[in-house]
Amino acid sequence: MAVQWVLVLHGLATLVVVVSFLCGQWPIFRRTPIASIHHFLTVGAYDYFLRCVGVLFGIRGTNAILEVERFCCDRPNPILQIIYLAIVGGTYFIVAKSCFSYIPGYYISGIHRYTSSLAVGIGLLLFLLTSFADPGTVKDDNVSQFLAAYPYDDIIYSGKECPTCKIPKPARSKHCSICDRCVARFDHHCGWMNNCIGERNTRYFMAFLLWHFLVCIYGVIAIGLVLAGQLKESRVIYVLTVYYRIENSFLSLAPHVLQWFVGSYDTQILLMVFLAIVALLLAGFFGYHASLCFTNTTTNETFKWQEYISWQRKLNEARASTAALRASVNGLSSDASPRESKWRAFFRRSPLEDAEPVVKENKYDKGLIKNIYEIIVPLSSRSSFSRKKSKVRRE
Ligand SMILES: [Zn+2]
Ligand SMILES: [Zn+2]
């Protein structure tokens, strides 16, 4: 009984930590222990660690840790690339070691030994393409091409110069502080790729996410088929129903079969759970980026739109309350108007509710098909913009 309670407490503690880490910043958790745990996990623990290092090793110790942090977070570095390669290589090695001896099996043919290597190889190729392809670096000699491809919308982008690169900043570009360069149609800086995700490599990045999701699903299904084949070949159902006299129904057999799997094939079960969790994470990440591509927006622009909408909303509310104030002053000055009852005043709409709603007017959204085509064939690489480039130069 005591062990069961320990397991329940362990499960609850894990759940609280995971929810706090992932969702602790949500407004619903404001001023709750979940928000405090989130703060501790994301900022507080590191601060305490820095203070401990300061007490133990003095200012030189703190400076050394800050230098490591600067290298890991603020400068281009291959740490996450190496971790990615270790995860893929390690997982494939364990899959090969624990499953290949059962291939070909009752439900799976021998060809999957080779197709699995091919699938992982294509994944690595997409990783290399995303990591090392030019994301669309804006330079002196190609800036006119990007300026022609991305006109200013005069809402979230207007003509400016990059203070660091000292060249005009095309609409939708951003100066990446980690790579220290301006990138066209900037989405985000990806630590896993050690590269920016921009105009020229979003296509590889999307293919990378989709392919890795499919490879994980392939892994789960293939291992599932290996285990199903083992179940069939070992005649476990026959042994359970004939020798142990367990009723031949799914509900009666399932716990025994599960116990047999966990007892005999724990590595394969763990691999399936791991691949399923990674597939879920990849599906979420791919879905988010696909929705951005479908509407021709970037991650960087979602922040810009949030800022613009909240600023515009405040402006509209200020206008609405000024208009309401003016109307009430006019009402007070005219003696003819009857006095409003207390009840009507109580239920009257707030002037803020009369504020005009803010509409997101994304001028780069040209419809689903054209938006997807823009990801596959970037605007600035099209011949029409190369011609415009030469025109701009002649002018
Ligand atoms: Zn720049
Ligand atoms: Zn970057």
TrEMBL record:
Keywords: Acyltransferase, Membrane, Transferase, Transmembrane, Transmembrane helix. It is found in: Endomembrane system. Its main location: membrane. PROSITE patterns: DHHC. It holds the Pfam family DHHC. It catalyses: L-cysteinyl-[protein] + hexadecanoyl-CoA = S-hexadecanoyl-L-cysteinyl-[protein] + CoA. It comes from the Eukaryota. It is an enzyme of class 2 (transferase). The chain crosses the membrane at residues 6-28, 40-59, 79-103, 115-133, 204-228, 269-288. Its EC number is 2.3.1.225. It is a multi-pass membrane protein. InterPro entries: Palmitoyltrfase_DHHC (IPR001594), PFA4/ZDH16/20/ERF2-like (IPR039859). Residues 159-306 form the Palmitoyltransferase DHHC domain. The keyword GTP-binding does not apply. Belongs to the DHHC palmitoyltransferase family. The DHHC domain is required for palmitoyltransferase activity. This is S-acyltransferase. It comes from Rhodamnia argentea.
